Amino acid sequence: MCSRFNLDEPTFYSAVSQFHLSGSERITVTSRDIYPSETAPVIIGDPGRGLDELMVVNQVWGFPSPNEKGLLINARSETVQQKPTFSQGVRQNRCVIPARCFYEWDPHKNKASFFPRNGDVIYMAGVFERPRELGGTFSRFVILTREADDVVRPVHSRMPLLLTAEQVPEWIRDDQRVEELLKAAPTPLYCEKEYEQMALDL
């Protein structure tokens, strides 16, 4: 799963520059960890500039749970097309969430940070839904997950579905590529671990 990620200003503007994203002037980014229920910059298609253009908007992380208890923050890539909560999003409202790194915790609650080996932006595949309530301000997104690769697996069994920079516009715009990209090979990562130091009585 993915329950927290980090975004900083250099990473954000690297994504903006890479895809010539419109809308960035309306978004203020500070270096911080982003939690469920918070807003984060999300890349979507720009209907005002043509089929191949992209934009960045703020969206809220998490769909309201159908039983009104908590938020749905992840969707499994293997079943997202069959789930009523997410199927429309994967057909019509696909997005990408840029990040500097993401975090996972092992069963002993040790935190691990995962960064891209190439030093580029991490691009996490997602889907979003537009506000249902009258006067709703922000769309909401969830992050798609897949089985963990060899780097993440020692920490957690799931990880975000990661896209290369070349795959970002394809995921958002190309309906014919969805099936293939839902099975995209993992982006090469490296792991930094944080462990609590334990005092030993000698």
Secondary structure layout plus pairing:
Elements: E1 5-7, H1 9-19, E2 32-34, E3 39-45, E4 54-61, E5 63-64, E6 71-72, E7 74-76, H2 84-92, E8 94-99, E9 101-105, E10 111-116, E11 122-129, E12 140-147, E13 158-160, E14 162-163, H3 167-173, H4 178-181, E15 189-194
Parallel strand pairs: 4-12, 7-12
Antiparallel strand pairs: 1-2, 1-9, 3-4, 5-6, 8-11, 9-10, 10-15, 11-12, 11-14, 12-13
Distance between the termini: 40 Å
Largest sheet data: 8 strands, mixed
Q: What pattern of helices and strands is seen along the backbone?
A: EHEEEEEEHEEEEEEEHHE
Overall radius of gyration: 17 Å
Structural class: alpha+beta
**What's the oligomerization state?**
single chain
Shape: globular
> β content, as a range?
35-45%
How large is the count of helical segments?
Answer: 4
Relative helix content? 10-25%
Total beta strands: 15
Given as residue ranges, the uncertain stretches (5+ residues, pLDDT < 50) are 196-202
Residue-averaged pLDDT, rounded? Answer: 91
Describe the overall structure.
It is a single chain. This protein has 202 residues and is α+β, with helices and mostly antiparallel strands. Mean pLDDT is 91; it is low at 196-202. It has helices at residues 9-19, 84-92, 167-173, 178-181, and strands spanning 5-7, 32-34, 39-45, 54-61, 63-64, 71-72, 74-76, 94-99, 101-105, 111-116, 122-129, 140-147, 158-160, 162-163, 189-194. The chain has 4 helices and 15 strands. Strands 3, 4, 7, 8, 11, 12, 13 and 14 form an 8-stranded mixed β-sheet that branches. It has a 5-stranded antiparallel β-sheet with strand order 2-1-9-10-15. The longest helix is centred in the N-terminal third of the chain and has 11 residues, at 9-19.
